[in-house]
Amino acid sequence: MHDHSKLPEIFQRLDYFFHRESSVMRVIKGIMFHQSINCLPEYPNTRVLYEEEITQFLDKKDLEYLKILMYNDTMSYELPRISERTREKRRQQIDDKIDQFM
Questions:
Q1: How far apart are CA 76 and CA 7, in angstroms?
Q2: Which of 49, 59, 79, 82 qualifies as a cystine partner to 36, CB 3.0-4.6 A?
Q3: Burial classification of residue 6, based on how many CB atoms lie within 10 Å of its CB (0-12 exposed, 13-18 middle, 19 or more buried)
Q4: What global pTM score does this model have?
C-alpha cells in the first residue's frame, strides 16, 4: 500500500538532487503518482492522493504528463483490442478528473 505520509520527506530529499521542474523529476512524479488519482470507476486505486496532496506535489505540467502516462497505462488493460468507444470514454474520464486540478 502506498504511504503518502512520507511524500514531504521524499521530495525534500529528491530536491537535493533534482530541480522540482526538471524532466527527471517529472518522470519520477509520473511513476510515483500514476496510480494515485482515481479516474476510472472500473479500475479503482487502493490508496489515492487527497486534493491537497495533488495540488501540493503536482503542477500543471506534471498533470499534463501524468495524463499521457495514464492514457497509455489504462489502455494497456484493454489490449490487444480496445474499441474506439472505450478508448474515448477512458480518455474523457481521465481528462475530466485531472483537469479539475489544473
A1: 28
A2: 49
A3: exposed
A4: 0.81
Read off the C-alpha cell for 25: 523529476
Reference 86, options 48, 45, 46, 42; nearest CA is 42
Domain count for the chain, please give it: 1
Question: Average pLDDT per run of 10 along the chain, which is 102 residues long?
Answer: 77 88 90 85 82 89 92 76 85 94 88
In the block, residue with C-alpha cell 495533488: 54
Domain ranges, residue 80: 4-99
pLDDT value at residue 99: 95
- Residue 42's contacts (CB-CB under 8 Å, 6 or more residues apart) are none
Please name the residue that has the C-alpha cell 472500473. Answer: 42
Q: Where do we find the cell 505520509? A: 5
pLDDT at 1: 54
Type of residue at 72: N
The residue written with cell numbers 488493460 in the block is: 77
